[in-house]
Design brief:
- The structure is a single chain.
- By secondary structure, the chain is α+β, with helices and mostly antiparallel strands.
- It has a single domain, classed as Kinesin motor domain (Kinesin, 3-Layer(aba) Sandwich).
- The chain contains 10 helices and 12 strands.
- Strands 1, 2, 3, 4, 7, 10, 11 and 12 form an 8-stranded mixed sheet that branches. A two-stranded antiparallel sheet has the order 5-6. It has a two-stranded antiparallel sheet with strand order 8-9.
- The protein starts with a helix and ends in a 6-residue tail after the last helix.
- ATP binds at residues 28-35.
Length: 270
């Protein structure tokens, strides 16, 4: 876990506390360890816990004449509907664009935090609300994409307010109905998952050929709309590709590696 963290998310922290956006997401077929990488276990913390710990430590080390405020929100995208995992009673939330064109989730709960432990407690509370169901391919299959957003606002003497956003995303895995043996509601969920992951893959493909592609279609799914600024804006994005050693998952693994290869060629201006 520590090795993966150092090679991926650790380098995003300095940009976030300086006012830039950053995103890290786990991508791959179902049952390949994406949730383990992002959330980990009590004995082996995942990327979320390690990133948050170093983020708050960096704020403490650099505060001086700068005032920092940290807040977080946590949502899931389930069947193309957005749910607030910290306050599920709000029902289905909508995406809105603000005056600058940035995509925001309307009315989502935003909670202030003063430590990594506090954010992780809220994350654990939200995970208890997350939609999970067993399938033939995965006994604890995530049926939704989970998005943790941490906002760092900073005000330095003599200067204005700046804010950076860190998105940490546990994507649901791509599925084949023959492998998962899904029927009914599970099959419907799988179709929504695959459709949103296809939209994400199409955006990655278009961005990797930006010189010849004038229009990037982010509107095919709630996931890509939410990630618009992360993928095509001025932030840093880390994609952690997960593959399976099983021969039955060859096609999914090959597809994941192809998307990862394309993602490496995306360049953003920061």
């Amino acid at each position: 876990q520590e090795t993966v963290y150092r090679a991926t998310a650790r380098g995003l922290i300095a940009g976030v506390i300086s006012g830039y956006n950053a995103t890290v997401f786990a991508y791959g077929p179902t049952g390949c360890g994406k949730t383990y990488s992002m959330l980990g276990t009590d004995g082996k913390p995942g990327i979320c816990a390690r990133t948050l710990g170093d983020l708050f430590q960096a704020i403490e080390d650099t505060s001086g004449d700068t005032e920092y405020k940290v807040s977080m929100s946590y949502l899931e995208i389930y069947n193309e509907m957005i749910r607030d995992l910290l306050n599920p009673s709000l029902g289905c939330l909508q995406l809105r664009e603000d005056a600058s064109g940035a995509v925001r989730v309307a009315s989502i709960t935003e909670v202030s935090a003063i430590s990594a432990e506090e954010v992780m407690q809220l994350l654990a509370r939200g995970n208890r609300q997350r939609t999970q169901e067993p399938t033939a391919a995965n006994h604890t299959s995530s049926r939704s994409h989970a998005v943790l957003q941490v906002t760092v606002r900073q005000r330095r003497r003599g200067r204005g307010l700046r804010h950076g956003r860190l998105f940490m995303i546990d994507l649901a895995g791509s599925e084949r109905a023959a492998q998962t043996q899904n029927r009914g509601q599970r099959m419907k969920e799988g179709a929504h998952i695959n459709r949103s992951l296809l939209a994400l893959g199409n955006c990655i493909k278009a961005l990797s050929h930006r010189a010849s592609t004038k229009y990037i279609n982010y509107r095919d799914s709630k996931l890509t709309r939410l990630l618009k600024d992360s993928l095509g804006g001025n932030g840093h994005t880390v994609m952690i590709a997960h593959i399976s050693p099983a021969s039955t998952a060859f096609e999914e693994s090959r597809s994941t590696l192809a998307y990862a290869h394309r993602a490496k060629s995306i360049r953003a201006t920061v």
